[in-house]
Specification:
The chain has about 220 residues and is α/β, with parallel strands linked by helices. Helix content is about 30%, strand content about 20%. The chain has a single domain, classed as Aldolase class I (TIM Barrel). The protein contains 8 helices and 8 strands, in the order βαβαβαβαββαβαβαα.
Length: about 220
Amino acid sequence: MPTVRVAPSLLAADFGCVQAEIERIEEAGADLLHLDIMDGHFVPNLSYGIPVVEAVSRCTDLLLDTHLMLSDPDPYLAPFAEAGAGSMTVHLEIAPDPERLLSEIGSLGCRRGLAVNPKTPVDGMLPWLEQLDLALVMSVEPGFGGQSFMPEVLEKVRVLRQAIDSRGLSVDIEIDGGVGPANAKECRTAGANWLVAGSAVFNAEDPARAIKLIRGD
């Protein structure tokens, strides 16, 4: 099993003091920082864009795990890479044949990620595993934080883990949505090793303890 990493989602932070929030979860032991980029088209919400990513990159040395919930990510790949994104994930729903997007992400020096929504079969991701660094399974409908975890998606994680391991690949499996101390063990057992947690970390009374529980320390 690859190393388990916890990626607090910046969407759950207090943007009135975002630098202090980032420093707080760094000190608590966060491994990565998850950035949800929403365009109001692919998902029914808007979040933040390139200037915020650039500002965040100046606040932290954590890898910026950038989740592009965009209906047309192509024009934004280079700008996000220049802004400091270390990993960029696009959705299978907007790119059933994602080879060109993944190649472009890799050429920009970023980790290549591909995501599926809860209702999207994971089979469409399997042909592209050799081109991936990261496979993301959404465990809520994308677009809003604070939703309840959907345990039925864990079967997708199991399918991915079996396929990745059987092919001898080093692809990380990320799960995003409603993850916290209460269900993190299920996620890890299924085979996920990058765990995105928003309110479970940022709103925790003790973020360091929450991160340890999610990571399984």
